[in-house]
Amino acid sequence: MATLGVQRKRALLRMFCMYMQVFVKGRFSLSGSTVQTRDTRKLECLLRAVRAVSTRLEVPMHHFMKSATCAIVNLSSESVPRSVWVKERAGRTWRDMHNPDFINDARRFRSYFRMPAPLFKTLLDWLRPRLERQHTQMRLPIEPARVLACALNRFASGETYERVGDRFGLGHATAIECTRRVTQAILDTMWGLISFPDAEGMTRNIAKFARQGFANCIGAIDCTHFFLEKPDKQLDSDYHDRTHNYSVVAQCVSDMDQRILDFAVGWPGAVHDSRVLRRSLLYSRATQEGFFADTAARLDYGGRVNQYLIGDAGYPNLPWLLRPIPGQPQGDRKRFNDAHESVRKCVERCFGRLKGMWRVLYKHQKGDVDGINAQIQAIGVLHNFCIDGNVYFNVERFMARHRNLGLFNQHDDEGGDAGINEQSGDAARDEVVAHMAFRAFRAPRRG
Known about the structure:
Layout: H1 2-29, H2 33-57, H3 61-76, H4 92-96, H5 100-104, H6 106-113, H7 117-131, H8 144-157, H9 161-167, H10 172-190, H11 199-210, E1 217-228, H12 236-239, E2 246-254, E3 260-268, H13 273-278, H14 281-287, E4 297-298, E5 304-305, E6 308-310, E7 321-322, H15 332-357, H16 369-388, H17 395-402, H18 426-442
Parallel strand pairs: 1-6, 6-7
Antiparallel strand pairs: 1-2, 2-3, 4-5
Helix pairs in contact: 1-2, 1-3, 7-8, 7-10, 8-10, 9-10, 10-16, 15-17, 15-18
């Protein structure tokens, strides 16, 4: 009698587990609501029968549930599409990326990702170890190529996450996560692209400035603003800049080719350019580590000057940072100011290329300020990556079309941070003025 009871219990357990497998497969593989409803009714009837039998046989109900759980776990190891987890989206651009016609259409590909397909593949190879996810028994992970494509299209277009995600068959939250992952991967693996060049590169860089009269100059420095939606109330006044927008400030050093040599991001929009300078790592390297010391070069007329940057009137005049001569100078000093204004525009063109190629920086951004700062830094790395890859961008045309929006000429007035320990740079500036005067005197005159 006892043996018969055990057999009945085992038979009941087998029946319950078998039906649970059939039911779960039907729920996850069948889309018809009628079938699912019928299965649900059958399961409810079966559970009532199991409860009744378990009561008569004095078998605790959790024994049956434990067996059912084991059946579901065994079933989950199979590759079963779970349509209830993912909403179907268009994903047209992602499908196009598998079409050779789309890949070979360089102009169209660049309109989505700001780089040609071979350069996209190079970037993907660099970032792939950071973008790959382990395969599990749940859903398949998103392909690294799709993650990168989603983030680049978001940076390039500045459109909403919903619209960008829909292009690649992703949801709003997934598009945000893809952008965050690519941002962090770029900062972790490629931040070294933003740096002052090595000795050979520095020689080429100095030669380009020297042809414009600025001997031993290594770059131009300026600040720009990236606009935000209104932040939290406690940060309201800090981020409200002089143009009556909310923004964060970035300090950039650029060479003549619009390449970023130093990039510091994250100060609130109300902070003056000179204060940003004083709080930056560049200022510490210059004043405490002697970054510009012992770099003197002999000038044409016989003088000597260390390496230096040029900046607008919002900066102090330092031995390593030369600003224009104030007032209305004449003669040789006016020549210096005219050349200074002309050469300094390389950093404005750098900002124009940065915001023109990556339109998310052109628009008012919404979200966590720290996350926005990280995205700006990552896009700065992509800026240099594209320059190194010889990606062309007509920055003059973009700036001419959008100059009235105040995206580039964002100079602060004189004054700024009185806390700067200013060592007068007048002597270094006078050396450069004399050098330009000597060059002008020796230049052949047209007659």
